[in-house]
């Protein structure tokens, strides 16, 4: 009988002086401080600057929360990121499960194919989708040539096109996070359940899905945060009317030259992603408790 | 004694090494045909005349380059950059760009004050284009001579517009504003009303001029606004297209040479700017890149003079908005564009 055990070392490992334990953290801490913490602090500072002369101001924050176009962009970002996170996880799950359990010689090839999209740049892949989805693209041309449609279907320059493009870009990350989680589930659990009379569906519902919750949450979080911060795919596949936070930040920095407002947008985007991470980790821990894992 | 000899020989070696290496100048501008022409017509003659090696950096658009100058507080890693009059004004106001003086850039005095002043003291205007109406000759047998031709029913679904983040959009709106009874800055309601109508019959919006170009090349689009220099390159490529300066007039794209405040090779940068404004250089540039010049004393063939801005009369015929005032209104106009124009597009 298989036993699930989350083991921890019984005795803490003493390495002499406490400071030695932190030594491995030195290099990453310096890198994070130089290239993340300090720039983040500067960005927060810029968000309180005034476009004209004067001291610190909340004017850019006030403008952000009173502007319906900007708030619509924020809502669009949340909806887009949520849809991408769900579609990445739903598509990645069966693939990751196959890779975790299969002993076929095709496994390596399928794994390579699942990761292969990462070998091409985001812009290249997005242009690929543009060629497929646009009005004069492959799908619409083929459908019109066969006479199935008389007008092009709206496959690009909208939410649908962006979600398809981003799902393709982020899918390998979803596969990897789910694969790690599914590989951690002891296969004997499934065999035992089936020996005891559980159907395949029962095994999935009562054993595999609950035990892979950390991987599912991780995949959802990766999908959400990567989609929320993506620029190239929404800019190219979304069209002029599809503004999300990342594209709006770009416009403010480069075209309107309003860096304080851009900093406010970037800060709100960061808070959105931190909130998603917090909610995700809380959800995961609640599910763990509920399932008595 | 031996130590002194060593020091002397080291100094001589260093001196020889220094004299063996030519001065270097980093010029940041555009890629594509622009790079080929600027290398051949400006950079190579400059290198030959001054013995300065030019490193050409084609990475980034003008707005990206300006952002880099702003982020590095005037130390972007290049010495000369090609931007626009709007960025010249903004950079000068922020103290990020070098102010030019006739003492250091003598050729400035030869530029027409009509346009040269528009860019402020930090921008040396080396080129001027105008917003033209580009059209397919095989689809529109009659040459359109008015911006209102874009509103013609025959062009429904056959035009494309720039997004507001391409400055062409704001200029087109201002031109329509003037043509329909408004003005360039304060009363732009007629301009937005016309743009909303135009959006109703356009197939959409594209930010990049090079992407817009693909639509007219492919024949999906029959007419669109386009900078006349790029339009001329399309004409020269043999496509069945032509362009006009419509009777209501046009707003120019004033391109400038700028030197960041803390450029590493300031002296060489100023020499380059001055060299680009030489009469011979301007003639080479106008005939090579097919654009206008604000040096009205240049000699160019009649066919080029007929299509480009090269005379004082051409310059005076342009609509010239106050670029600083335009910059202060861009954000509000951008929001209005989203509500009034993008919202009605198909």
Shape of chain B: globular
Low-confidence stretches of chain A: 1-8
Q: Helix proportion of residues of chain B, in percent?
A: 40-55%
Number of helices of chain A: 13
Q: Tell me the Rg of chain B in angstroms.
A: 23 Å
Major sheet description of chain B? 7 strands, mixed
Query: H/E series of chain A, N to C?
Result: HHHHHHHHHHHHH
How many beta-strand runs of chain A? 0
Strand content of chain A: under 5%
Sheet bearing the most strands of chain A, described? Answer: none
Kindly report the average pLDDT value of chain A.
Answer: 89
Question: Can you characterise this structure?
Answer:
The complex is a heterodimer of chains A (about 290) and B (about 350). With about 290 residues, chain A is mainly alpha-helical. Helix content of chain A is about 75%, strand content about 0%. In chain A, helix 2 crosses helix 13 (about 260-290), helix 5 packs across helix 7 and helix 8 runs antiparallel to helix 9 (about 200-210). Chain A is globular, with a radius of gyration of 24 Å. In chain B, strands 1, 2, 3, 4, 7, 8 and 9 form a 7-stranded mixed beta sheet that branches. A two-stranded parallel ribbon of chain B has the order 5-6. Chain B is globular, with a radius of gyration of 23 Å. Residues about 5-20 of chain B have low confidence and may be disordered. Classes of the chains: A mainly alpha (about 290), B alpha/beta (about 350).
